[in-house]
Batch of 2 targets.
Target 1
Amino acid sequence: MVYPILAYGHRNLRKIAEDIDRNYPGLEDLIANMFETMYETSGVGLAAPQVNRQIRLFVVDASPFAEEDAAAKDFKRVFINARILEEYGEEKNFDEGCLSVPGIRGEVLRPSIIKMEYLDENFEKHTDEFSGMPARVIQHEYDHLEGILFVDHFSNLRKMRIKKKLTNISKGDVQVDYRMIFPKKKKR
Ligand code: NI
């Protein structure tokens, strides 16, 4: 099942996501549906808050980046209750986009290496270091758990330049080829 994606401006994208345990209802289906939704929308990552679940879960498949980074080959993972412990290494720019912010892309500066603690889909605990494209995708998805969107990292000037576009997205005035949930219009 392909879920609709919450659009920029939806307040549920701004909440801090909460940890889950293995009894979280329908978790297996949720994960399968999140992968299906991600592939259907040509994403390389999808975080649960984007499908209106305020829980610390995201899925990643970085394999479209395999040509530019060998580490991305077959990098298909589920991350539950993730906590970034450290970020280090050279800060690098990379052109990012987001299913919740269609039609907008832009470079975001992030440290190139992260150390993260998380559970996989079997609730096995891991502490791993990631770099290259996997780190980049993880950092973007992890931000969603903290209520942060990639455009928040833009300079004030660039934020000003995209303000109108963002307003249009939040009003549902945007061309997009997948289903989205737009913020409720205010009653007059
Ligand atoms: Ni995103």
Note: The chain has three helices and seven strands.
Target 2
Amino acid sequence: MSTVYLNGKYLPMEDACVSVMDRGFLFGDGVYEVIPAYGGRLFRLPHHLQRLQDSLDGIRIANPLSDTEWEQVLNELLQQNAATDGNKHDQSVYLQVTRGSAAKRDHSFPNPVTPTVYAFSVHIPAPDPDVTEQGIAAITLDDIRWKYCNIKAITLLPNVLLRQEAADQGAVEALLIRDGRVIEGSASNVFVVRDGTILTPPKGTQMLPGITRDLVLELAAQHNQPCREADIEEAELRDADEIWVTSSTKEIVPVTTLDGKPVGAGTPGPVWKTMIEQYRHYRDAVRSGELN
Ligand code: PDD
């Protein structure tokens, strides 16, 4: 049985309860993070904690824990769950902070209110060999989300509906189009390769500043691979040599079919192959403790 963290306590998931008046439950009034940990080592933790702080600032919740406290809580959780499984496998931690619960349902913030802090960890499965060999199918959809997509809000109804639309059409991810440009996926950032150059849309309020995205840009720069942050028109997306989507739990995934048509040669491309090797090399160095 897995252990979760809830408001200062570590307890079996089955015993963890939050109030039905919690504003996360009633309003989706909260933010979250998903942080991978390899061999028990949290991956890019300072980057995730900075984004958590930015999300909390964005919805005006004071951070309930210091960075040191977050690190202690998450490490304790990882350890307790690794111990249950008898090994230090790769896990991802989900953490969530909501504004807390109040006696009355009122849209405006209750005062005073204590945030609800919840975290759990799950095993990260090894990358699916089919995905690595064949890539995934994606579809394009109109980006129906709000104006603050840079905030990692738990209010994910548009993302849920968009991802389900992709699933209904036999695809794995939906790439979201706004004003004629691709922004990101329903739960991932997007990259394209055109004439040997890696391109990804610039950060802004329209998309989540992905931690994996930043690492891909860092690795590309380190290895002198041509790489640019630039707006990507829908036509450029459709005509790309390669398309990838990135996220903390899935790493870098090649998209080989877009709206039923092959992307480039219809197989994972050579630039993706180089990049995934560099990414996994970095990840394995963190896992072994060589890098932190
Ligand atoms: N989602 N964009 C969106 C809308 C996302 O939901 C995610 C990740 C990303 C990639 O961000 P990162 O590289 O920091 O994981 C981009 C997480 C994994 C989730 O909701 O489960």
Note: The chain has eight helices and 15 strands.
